[in-house]
Specification:
Layout (H helix, E strand, L loop, with lengths): L2 H25 L12 H26 L3 H19 L5 E4 L6 E4 L5 H28 L3
Antiparallel strand pairs: 1-2
Helix pairs in contact: 1-2, 3-4
């Protein structure tokens, strides 16, 4: 199985685990005498089986990804940095600040245009790495 398909399978298993947990939560306690729509003991067995399946799949994915961990980690850090800069408030010039009753004159070393260009550069690098990882995931067997 290719990594791309394994990642889809992982998400499917995660959803199934969530559903099994919800059934245990919802149907563990019922009013005495009422029928129980699901056998909790059976669901617990299914839960443990699915959990082991997920652990096995995640392990195989992790082993396959050792070749591209640096790209995965770089991608994560670049996304965080891009978000940081996108959210960075830049005040430059006269502006009324909610902390002061009067207008303040702000100086910003990083200007809006510079920030926007930096974000564009980061996003371009993110796209390149994501494309490389997508190709790796589509071609690599686990």
């Amino acid at each position: 199985m290719k990594i791309a398909k394994a990642l889809k399978q992982k998400n499917k298993i995660v959803a199934e685990l969530k559903m099994l947990r919800e059934r245990i939560e919802e149907y563990n306690s019922v009013i005495s005498g009422n029928p129980r729509p699901y056998d909790i003991t059976e669901i617990q067995v299914q839960l443990m089986t699915k959990m082991q399946e997920l652990v096995s799949l995640k392990t195989r994915l992790a082993q396959a990804n050792t070749l591209v961990y640096s790209k995965i980690f770089e991608l994560s850090e670049l996304k965080g940095l891009a978000k940081f800069y996108k959210d960075l408030e830049i005040k430059d010039g006269l502006s009324k600040d909610h902390r002061y009753d009067e207008t303040q004159n702000y100086e910003s070393e990083l200007k809006v245009k510079q920030r926007d260009e930096l974000v564009s550069e980061l996003e371009a690098r993110i796209e390149i790495i994501q494309d490389e990882l997508d190709e790796f995931n589509a071609l690599t067997e686990i």
